[in-house]
Structure formats: C-alpha cells, structure tokens
Amino acid sequence: MLDNTIARIENLRVEFETKNGTVVGVEDVSFDVKPGETVCIVGESGSGKSVSSLALMRLIEFGGGDIAGGRLLFERKEGGEIDLATTDQDLMRTIRGNEIGMIFQEPMTALNPVFTVGKQLTEGLRLHMGMSRDAAEARALDLLKQVRIPEPERRLKQYPHELSGGMRQRVVIAMALACEPRLLIADEPTTALDVTIQAEILALMDRLKRETGTAVMFITHDMAVVAQMADRVVVMFRGNKVEEGPVEEIFANPQHNYTKALLAAVPKLGEMTGTDLPTPMRLLGSDASNVKPIEGTDEVLLDVSHLTTRFPVKGGFFRRTIANVHAVEDVSFSLNKGQTLSLVGESGCGKSSAGRSILRLVEPLSGQVVLDGKDIIALDQKGLRDARRDMQMIFQDPFASLNPLRQLMDQVAEPMRNFGTHSGSELEDRIAMLFDRVELPRSFMRRYPHELSGGQRQRIAIARALALNPKLIVADEAVSALDVSVQAQVLNLMMELQAELGVSYLFISHDMAVVERVSHNVGVMYLGRIVEIGPRRAVFENPQHPYTQALMKAVPIADPTRRKSEKDLNFKPIPSPIHPVDYEPALSEYKEVSPGHKVLITDSGY
C-alpha cells in the first residue's frame, strides 16, 4: 500500500441476490482514506455510498450482499496490511469497533433496546480494551460528556427508548469513539440531529480527528455538512464514482452534471431574504415557469391556545409520580388554511410533543386546540376518530411508521379502508394516483418497506397521509432523513400539494434552511415554550431572542470557505425540563416587536 494510507478500496463490486435476479449495489468504485483526513462520500440514497462502507466493515454479507470483486486494503494498528474482502469473520470481529468504528444512520437500530446505555457503552471497552468494570464505566461517563449529553450519570442507567433521537445518536457516536479506532466510518451520523447539536458533533468529530489522527470516512447527502467537514469529496451515482476532488474544487467548479444538480438542490440559509412568501425550489432540469409563491388564505384553520403537556416521572417503591417533564408549556399559535407554520428547535424542546398533543396522540394536560371550528381536546373517542380524517401526520422515521409485513399499496390503502371512503377499482385508481403524486413508479406498489430507500419510504408516508384529503398535516421532521436532491423534490412536492389542495402544514423541523424555504410563519421553541414567533421573514431577518440567534449561527453553510470552528459555537447547555410535582411555571408573556412578530419576555433560562 502507498505510504500513509489507512484504507483503500480498489475496484469494489457488490451484488445482491433478489427474487428478480442479481442487483448491483456498487459497480466499480475506488478511493482511499489517509490518516487525519476526512473523505466525504456523497450521493443520493441508492447510489451505493452506504453499501461501500458496509462492505469495508464486511457487514454487507449479513444484509444479503456479496463482495463480487475488488480489494479492501486496510492498514492495521500493529502495522501490516490486510485485504478485508478475504479476512475471516473472527478477525473481522476484532477489527470492528476496535480498529474501525462505525456510526449508523438510525440510532434506534444500532442500539439494543433491552440493555441500558451504560451497559452498551462499556461492552466494547471491556471486550476490546480489557478494562475493568469501574474503568469502563468511568470512560463511558467521560465519553457521554465529550458528546455533550446533559445529566450523563443518569443517562448511563437509562434505556435507548427513554432518550430523544438526538441523544440516541450521540450515544452511538460515543460508542464508535470508545476504543479510539484508526478509521471511523460515519454513515449519515447527523441527519437526525438538530442544527446546534449537529454543529457541535461535527466540530467534535473534527477535533477528535485532529487530536487522534483518526481517518474519517463520512457518508452524507447534506452538502452543507460536506462543506463543513470534508478534505476530499467522492461523488457517487448509481453505484459508480462520478467525481472526486478536494472540497474547495468540488464546490467552486463541479464538473459532472450530477454534482451540479446536487449542489443546486441545497437549500441555503438566507436565500429567501427579501421575499415574504415560500417558493418551491428551481431544480436543475425542472420547469422554472411554474414556480410560484404560495399565498395561502387569511382564514384560520388551527387555533392553539395555552397548550400544556407534561409527562410524569415515576420512582420509588410504589412507582409514584415524583416529578414532571414539562414537555410543552403554555404554547399558543394559529395556522391559516393553505399555509405552513414551522416549529423549530433542538431535540427535547417539545416541538414533536406539541405536534402530537394537537393530534391527541399524547393527551395534553390543559389548553385548547380548535381545528376548523371543532375543539379537538373536548371530543370523545368516536368524535376524535372522525376528526382524524382532517388531520394526518408524517413521522420522522418512515421505517418505524410503516408495517414491514405489508405491501406498500395496502399501507397507502389502509386509511381509506378504515374510513370506508373508497373501495374496489376506485380504491385501486386512487392508490395509483397517490403513487404518481409522490413520484414513485407504480411497480413499487407490490414492494415491501425494506425494499425501498429512506427517501422512497418517506414518499410512501406522504402518500398515506394524503389518502384522506386532510386539511392539516403535521410533518414531524418529514424530510430530515432524506438526501438533498430527494429532499428538494419532496419539499417541492409538499408545496405543490399545498398550492393545489389548500392543505395546511404544521412543519416540525430543526433544519433552518428548509424551514426558511417552506414557511409562512415560524415559531422557535426552547424548553417547551415558544420563545419567538412571527412571519418567516421577520424571524429570519431580524431574530430577537438570543436562542434564535444561536440557532441561526449554528446552521452549516454549503461553502467550504466559511467553515465554523468550535469556538464559534458557544451554546449554553440546555437546562433540564424536569421539575418537582409542585413546581408552577410562570405564564408565557410576549412583547410584539413588529406586526405578528412576538418575543417571549418570561425568563426561559436562555
């Protein structure tokens, strides 16, 4: 191997055996990774970028794949080069975790639901590093502090389902860094994270890389993250490498049409400055003439006032309530027909709980939710079932919200069968029309969720949400796990549907650039409260609350010349939202800065 290369992939070919014959996941890919270097592999889902990393870990065999050709050369810790493609699984077990660490995209699938976080963190340390239990626990605590998890001592005793998505991902990152591997493969490690945490994790990985000389193979579809992290970029498309080069060159002077299209699809913060209404993106190859801003109406569809949701914390011998998590605290806003209100904030700020409380998927403690004249909170079970035709939800993780055992056409048909709105050939036509709407081929109707990429699964979730022609769709991080180009298409699709059908969106997201693109109004949440709310332009161009300003500062910019360093990101640690049972928080009071633009004056701890 050439001096100073940790891993080299040479002419890799990966094939999958399916019912319909052999599918080539990666056709012919070669690149290398040097110590202390970050190589970003970018491309859409289905381009083969994750397959090449799973091949390097030799995990591809467990997913039905087969390394059909090529060499995977790796320089070991003790020196000496091996070809991972021919190494036996026993030696691979030693190398995995110890010399090659991997951070997976979906933290819930990477963590074991029946073991505590502490047990999972210490397992690798004891297995690979031979540490005693006490030493491993001390190191685990130190790792959680490094990835900035609040109350790390308590988290060690908790199970994965008790943590928010962002926290679970930080645990996975801590696990991957535990044994100080020579090569770290990060497969979309920040897609499910908030901007501030993403900015910190990226800065953290950058710092660890510089301190330890670890080589990083960073797989992502987020070009802003690439601009922030990469030294070199490898662009993949349909199983092949189409372009490779230093990050500055790729951004300044992309050569391949696919790279150009990827860069064109990135929503950039500040792009909408000076415009009042959300406008679909002009994608490469799309017709620019039909890109019109979405006005919506002045008629209120959803009116939420003083919504409060708390979750009990139980403890003691009798499992009594000893404290409450103040998830949503005195939240009020209204949403007009045919418009989009976005709730933004970090994970744990209460934005998803607010969305679920409005649909009564979790029961709020108090407050009022009026949808199109109906008080949702006051409805009985039958009334609520009928009202659910008007309000649907698109969840963050499409894999968890789809049934793995049923064909996609059945899942899209399910709401219509439940409510008896369509049957027979009419139902089949509507399913086909919904597949067309979300731009999926009709041949997918007989597929199962695991046969689709993440972006395609999310389109199925959107098709299912649209099945009953709802008035309100709560989109909970609906595009956070999608590739840029797919994300741009899905966002444009959602906005076209809004223009056509007059549907209103409550758009829950942590991606400020996406929020700027789609919103009429924006509410910024922090610790369960809305700290700033108003028309999108007012909030983005004149942020008043210090937390909103910190959020804006954290957004990665798709420009490698404007990288952020760790010292730019001085976020305050988020205080705990858990308070004793008798704690009575103050009511939310707002000051109006300009028409409709309000800022919280009650102390929110920021």
Automatic annotation (TrEMBL):
CDD domains registered for this protein in UniProt: ABC_NikE_OppD_transporters (cd03257)
Domain ABC transporter stretches: 7-263, 302-552
The keyword Nucleotidyltransferase is annotated on this UniProt entry: no
Listed InterPro entries: AAA+_ATPase, ABC_Ni/Peptide_Import, ABC_transporter-like_ATP-bd, ABC_transporter-like_CS, Oligopep_ABC_C, P-loop_NTPase
GO molecular function, one term: ATP binding
Membrane topology of the entry: Peripheral membrane protein
Keywords, in A-Z order: ATP-binding, Cell inner membrane, Cell membrane, Membrane, Nucleotide-binding, Translocase, Transport
SMART domains for this protein: AAA
Main location: membrane
SUPFAM superfamilies: P-loop containing nucleoside triphosphate hydrolases
Compartments where located: Cell inner membrane
Similarity comment text for this entry: Belongs to the ABC transporter superfamily.
PANTHER family the UniProt entry points to: ATPASE AAA-TYPE CORE DOMAIN-CONTAINING PROTEIN (PTHR43297:SF14), OLIGOPEPTIDE TRANSPORT ATP-BINDING PROTEIN APPD (PTHR43297)
Protein name: ABC transporter ATP-binding protein
Lineage: Bacteria, Pseudomonadati, Pseudomonadota, Alphaproteobacteria, Rhodobacterales
